[in-house]
Amino acid sequence: MVRFKSRYLLCEVCVPDRSSLQLLEDRSIYNTLRAAVKRAHGDYGSALFNIGVIVKYLNAHTGVVLIRSRKKHYRLIWSALSFITCLENRGQMVQCFLNCLHVGGTIRTCQKFLVKYNRQQLHRMLPDCKTDAEKQEVRKAILSCSLSNVRDEEADEDGSDDDDDDDKET
Amino acid sequence: MEEPSKFEQYVYKNASVYHYMKISLVLENGNKYITDAQFKQLIICGLKDLYGEVGASFPFDLLKFDQNKLTGILRVYNSGLVKLWSALTLLGTYQNEACAFRVMQVSPFLLALSGNSRELQFGDQLTL
């Protein structure tokens, strides 16, 4: 009846070469986002960032980030995402941009969207496959995309099963 | 019997797109020489500190500026009034010197700023 409402921003980190994504940490995304919000929205923005925002989930293989913020201020945080040009990762600067895929009210809705999105990405990958073995693997991955696989792993906070399937995503 | 006189009343909720503010800058060590461009730049700096790049880019105009008394009239869109006013309140320093902005009048109509009942001077006719 009365509860804290939040908005989850499902974003994707787009980098020119995938190998630089490997060692990404949620702390570096948090710090970069905080600096971007401070530059774009000043003291007011950094105060709002401090109370409500946290990076809930990060998948270094696919570059999927889940950022939680309060319902009233998610647009402010969303607008600051477009000002991020590079991430600092263990002393190295990685050129990137954050692309927001979906805004959801709960983690489960974001997961459902991610399952559908990954299935679409795999479909798009299928014509690009060179060998038959690759095609078989992609088809198997598409069939195994489902939310029920996710529920078992929810406790581990490892993210959905589907994220591991598109490791050949270009 | 004569007809009753017609009476029509127009009520506007948001009559004006702009809000006008009459403000004055008070410096700790007396008046300095400040041009109108520097005055506007000071306000933009205040907006930038509090609301960042997005806040500092909000358009407002300095319509009149009196260099001797350091007073001016600002015009801002309705959506930016709260941001501008709060930035003026929290602005504390000008070139490492303490200063303060006093907001004397705020009105959605420019004509209202021409008269101020606080500064009204009664003429001789009112005394008997």
Describe the structure in your own words.
The complex is a heterodimer of chains A (170) and B (128). Helix content of chain A is 43%, strand content 22%. Chain A has helices spanning 26-52, 74-81, 107-125, 132-143, 147-153; strands at 6-14, 54-59, 64-70, 86-89, 92-95, 97-104. In chain A, a hairpin with a 2-residue loop joins β4 and β5 (92-95). Chain A is globular. Mean pLDDT of chain A is 81; it is low at 149-170. Chain B is α+β, with helices and mostly antiparallel strands. In chain B, a hairpin with a 2-residue loop joins β4 and β5. The radius of gyration of chain B is 19 Å and the shape is flat. The interface between A and B is small, with 10 and 8 residues.
In summary, what is this structure?
The complex is a heterodimer of chains A (170) and B (128). With 170 residues, chain A is of the alpha+beta class.
Show unreliable segments of chain A.
149-170
Helix fraction of chain A? Answer: 40-55%
Please state the structural category of chain A.
alpha+beta
Radius of gyration of chain A equals 17 Å
What is the rounded distance between the termini of chain A? 44 Å
Order of helices and strands of chain A: EHEEHEEEHHH
